[in-house]
Design a protein that fits this description.
Blueprint: H1 8-39, H2 42-69, H3 72-88, H4 100-113, H5 116-128, H6 132-163, H7 165-183, H8 198-214, H9 216-236, H10 239-245, H11 251-271, H12 277-293, H13 297-325, H14 331-353, H15 358-379
Helix pairs in contact: 1-2, 1-6, 1-7, 2-4, 2-5, 2-8, 2-14, 3-4, 3-5, 3-7, 5-14, 6-7, 6-11, 6-13, 8-14, 9-14, 9-15, 11-13, 12-13, 12-15
Main location: membrane
Subcellular location: Cell membrane
Keywords: Cell membrane, Membrane, Transmembrane, Transmembrane helix, Transport
Length: about 375
């Protein structure tokens, strides 16, 4: 799997993603903590989280269109520099009266970042081809992503507690600059010439959606994604009450479950080339069922690790299938469209889950993930 790092272009792209993701995961913990410390308001803290989610829902598909039109290397370099400038604005925040700067900065960072992922997705097959190395490239990215999930959040929380938000912001900004410096050495791609009018962007977005719909594989994975990510979104609301009511734990137990999830994500990346979409969802279903029956923190941690394995494999399958089956010039918008569908389903699942009891929610999550397995078996070709 790791032989793909011998490809210089992919090695640079992988290193850039590694650097920027570490900084981003540090901010995931530090920013909500900062907002809550300044305001004491859970509503304000939720707004800080939404500031990074809303742009994905509103602008995500159009970001894919632009990523397909522009030179991928230049796009990612500019995005990194914009994100670095955006997070540095948080250094101006001193009290509750200036906390709005955090919301603006997070929105700007998230909006710019929308262009990075589809450009990156389109660039990977150009660097390693669409053969076996593509599976290896995505597996390597998934494994390192699991490591970052494990260390990034705790590292950000520790840095915030020891040295304050300034240290975390400077580390995040520096990670974006390092990423941009690595990306400069990548080859350029041919940009689409011509003025990008609103009508043209809409037409190209529709073309990208048609490319997904016309491919039986991508269409089946898109439908499967809606079901799975809706159930997974509902599951995000279950961990805290599950820990409190079933596992008799607190923040430490919740941290244990999240660490186990990261370990599962790491292991899933290593297995991703050997397991299908149906297999990954079967694994996830078993994990959610075990979580629903858990009565001890250790059992809950094992369940989360199993969920992480299944979820990680599914993400690699989705990414690789899109890069391999989307037509040349459509990879960016196809990737962005699927990402938007996944985010919308996650938000919808989380919103619907607020009306259910803990037991009802656990049952719904297990049935939802099981249903996604059935959908994948029927709609996704082997």
């Amino acid at each position: 799997m790791w032989d793909v790092l011998r490809v210089r272009g992919f090695r640079l792209l992988w290193g850039a993603g590694l650097a920027s993701e570490i900084g981003s995961w540090m901010m995931i913990v530090a920013v909500p903590a900062l907002v809550y410390d300044l305001t004491g308001s859970t509503t304000a803290t939720a707004v800080a989280v939404l500031a990074e989610t809303v742009p994905v829902l509103v602008l995500g598909p159009f970001a894919g269109v632009l990523a397909d039109r522009w030179d991928h290397r230049t796009t990612m370099v500019v995005v990194d520099l914009v994100r670095a400038a955006a997070v540095l604005a948080i250094l101006c925040v001193r009290d509750a009266s200036t906390v709005w700067v955090v919301f603006v900065a997070m929105t700007a960072e998230s909006t710019a970042g929308l262009l990075f992922a589809p450009a990156q997705a389109a660039l990977v097959p150009r660097l390693v081809g669409r053969g076996p190395r593509l599976d290896s490239a995505n597996a390597v990215s998934s494994v390192t992503g699991g490591v970052i999930r494990l260390v990034g959040g705790p590292l950000g929380g520790a840095a915030y507690a020891l040295w304050g938000i300034e240290a975390v912001v400077l580390a995040d900004a520096a990670s974006y600059v390092v990423s941009a410096m690595l990306l400069v050495f990548l080859p350029r791609s041919r940009a689409v010439r011509g003025r990008a009018t609103v009508r043209l962007l809409i037409d190209e977005l529709v073309d990208g959606l048609r490319a997904v719909v016309r491919s039986r594989l991508l269409r089946g994975l898109a439908i499967t994604s809606v079901v799975f990510f809706a159930a997974n979104g509902a599951a995000t609301t279950v961990l805290a009450p599950l820990v409190a009511e079933r596992l008799d734990g607190g923040a430490g137990t919740l941290g244990l479950l999240m660490a186990a999830l990261g370990i599962g994500y790491l292991l899933g990346g290593m297995l991703s080339a050997k397991v299908s979409a149906v297999g990954s969802l079967t694994i996830a279903t078993c994990g959610f069922l075990l979580l629903a029956l858990a009565s001890h923190p250790i059992i809950g941690a094992v369940a989360c690790a199993v969920i992480g394995v299944g979820g990680s494999i599914l993400l690699v399958v989705l990414r690789t299938a899109t890069q391999r089956r989307a037509p040349e010039g459509f990879v960016g918008r196809a990737s962005a469209s699927l990402a938007t569908v996944q985010t919308a389903a996650t938000v919808a699942g989380a919103a619907l889950a607020t009306t259910a009891s803990l037991t009802g929610l656990l049952i719904a999550v297990v049935l939802g993930v099981a249903l996604s397995t059935v959908v994948a078996a029927v709609a996704v070709p082997r």
